[in-house]
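Input:
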Amino acid sequence: MSTAEKTIQDAHALEGAPVLVGRPDDRALTESLLSPVLGPTRKGWLLLLFALLGGVGFWTLSLVTTLFVGIGAWGNNIPVAWAFDITNFVWWIGIGHAGTLISAILLLFQQKWRTSINRFAEAMTLFAVAMAGVYPVIHLGRPWLFWWLIPYPSTNLIWPNFKSALPWDVFAISTYATVSFLFWYLGLIPDLATLRDAAKTRGRRIVYGIMSFGWRGSARHWRHYRIGYLLLAGLSTPLVVSVHTIVSFDFAISQLPGWHTTIFPPYFVAGAIFSGFAMVLTLMIPARRLLGYQHVVTERHLDNMAKVILATGLMVFYGYMMEWFMAWYSGSASEAFAFLNRFQGPYRGIFIAQMFCNVVAPQILWFPSMRRNEYVLFLVAILVNVGMWAERFVIIAVSLHRDFIPSSWGMYYPTWVDWGLFLGSICMFGVLFLLFLRFLPAIPLFEVKELRRELEHYGDNAHPGSEEEG
Amino acid sequence: MTLTPYQGGRRLMAPALVAAVAGLALTAVGGLVDPRRALFAYLVAFVYWLGIALGALILLGAFHASNARWPVVLRRFVETVPAALPLFAVLFVPIALGMKHLFVWMAPPETLAPEMAHAVHHKLPYLNAGFFLGRAAVYFVFWIVVAHLLRSWSIRQDSAGGATLTRWQRRLGAGSLPFLALTLTFASFDWMMSLDPRFFSTIFGVYWFAGSFMAAFAVTIIAATLSRPDPTAFGHHMSLEHFHSLGKFLLAFTAFWAYVAFSQFMLIWIANVPEEVPWYILRIDGGWKWVGIFLALFHFVVPFFLLLSRDLKRTPRALSLVAGWLLLVHWVDLYWLVMPHLDPAGPRPSLWDLAAFVGVGGAAVAFTLFRLRGASPVPVRDPYLEDSLRYLPQ
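Output:
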């Protein structure tokens, strides 16, 4: 065997699982990937939908109560003016980041494995941002005046205070929601046309026909599509960083120990991607099984997402370590106290949960066999979701409840409305996701077809060796 | 693919060596004339060049951790830049000997302002000569061992081949990254942040990393461009696609540096906390203000917009010019980080600044070129070399 052949063999020895199992043809892909949309309604889907709708009822009740009673319906009170509401807001916004990272940054990095999961993750982004957007608005006290936050030359002569982080959030989040929606929808158009063509009823043909904007798949269409998609990817890339950076500014621009620290911007971004990938896995592991997507969302995808979780989890841990070190190094008594209070104060249980879920649990992902084990991965993903919620609660409520002067200390206890707004939002998110899975193609058909052709041409993992071998 | 071992670089090695001897000798003279000034100048040069070696080591770890294929052709160079780390361990000696001139916490005078005295006293368990030197020893041992293993396994693969050595490199590369991050961070606290014992900033380590990592890309781009005509060098085997991708990374990390710099500045400025803000007051009141504005414009705005150009990234010479410029302003950045603690009123450039920069840099360049020689210029038996040579992103 020549050296060159040996090298090719070495490359094969290093390969992981394929990004696409088998080489299904276009027809088989269309049929298997559209079957959840075109097939009959499944009982399990309906049951789950109704169960979640129950939760949405609880959510609606909590929202209505908040509107009628005001913020007094919540457990928030001075000194803990921000609690579940802002914790949920940061948690949901953070979750959205994985979708943007997968669709924009991984596209620029030419990562082929993003192909089959990007639409799924982008849908998650949109729904998560929608859930997040609710909290700051209802926290305004008079949410029907929310449009006062938008700078426009009004006859009221009201102009937002640009030194406040609240208008920054308005810009960050509305930009994020707009660009994410455009990006997601643009990617959907070719597949909506496929759905239109494959639909069996006239009603569906009309609806999907309108939604696909008359896509015919001509070379001109594809050319414009490519340019538009790449431009939106470029526009989305800074958003991956900027949105959570601005969210971190909400805290870091203050003088409160536990909030004011310079590592916050990158540390929040890392935490956002960490929790977002955990949420993608939480949804994807059951969905790929139930909907039969295992041939397009393979072990390779799970493995790669687990690696991203491990890496971003370590970045988050780095942020914790910097905070702890500086709490001592700064020599400031209130800094040191803020951190001791996390370890020893009345909310230490939540802090311990945060450490276990965010620092200890993900370390198991150093082992390749664990990264490919669906059950382990699902468990870690759930724990990370919990841990990141706990982290935001610890940052927000625990820092607030004991600040500089002991006479102003207090405790925070959530009311049923707080719980309703939190747990209900998870149900609402689930409902939106179920609707997405039922009515839209969750896996980008045309991109998987394109991937299959690339794999046929260049071989699995685009390794040139397999091309000659056939 | 078989390649003769790299034997070039002699044309650059001799002048680099002369620069090293002359620069270091002149800095030593400076040490006799004005020890404090010479040592500060030396510290700037030291963290500048060491940062590039560490940036390259982290880059190498990241390549392995991500199983990256496209950079295989340029990986030997990235492996060899950190091979200069033993040299930096030796070059640390003047800092260890001159500590009391550099760091106020080493020998705090009686006249210290109360809050400074409090800070020095509080930090004594961390900022004291013994622990400081012990930490430096730990950092260097760790860095040298990781850099040595990654490079020697890669060179062994040149003759032995096989996938096992790739697996080892990937494991060590990924596994060492968390510890590289921590050692680099604490090194930046020790050698730069502690110049003002009052100051603390949790992002400080990331700031040094951001600039150094960007500089590691810049050095790789320049080396690749210079070695393009030489068939025994790595640059000869690189395509424009590789330059394009390196240029994208240069762009990304120019922006990342600005992001970190802005985050640190904005948060400290807006909160205006008495413990932190004096560090920026020093850099805003008086002559340093102009250096800060210069950095914002020429370390970020201008190079950022230049690097957006696709044509520029695909023209190695033009890309190298921008990379060279960034290397220069990166030095200004570190000067701005260190020197206000010597000259609070404003920059007072001296001959020793130039001497130390050229001296440490000449030594680092000569040593790296020396380590490049004798080994194959690219990892010839790496399983993914073919992929890298045929790199064609869509």
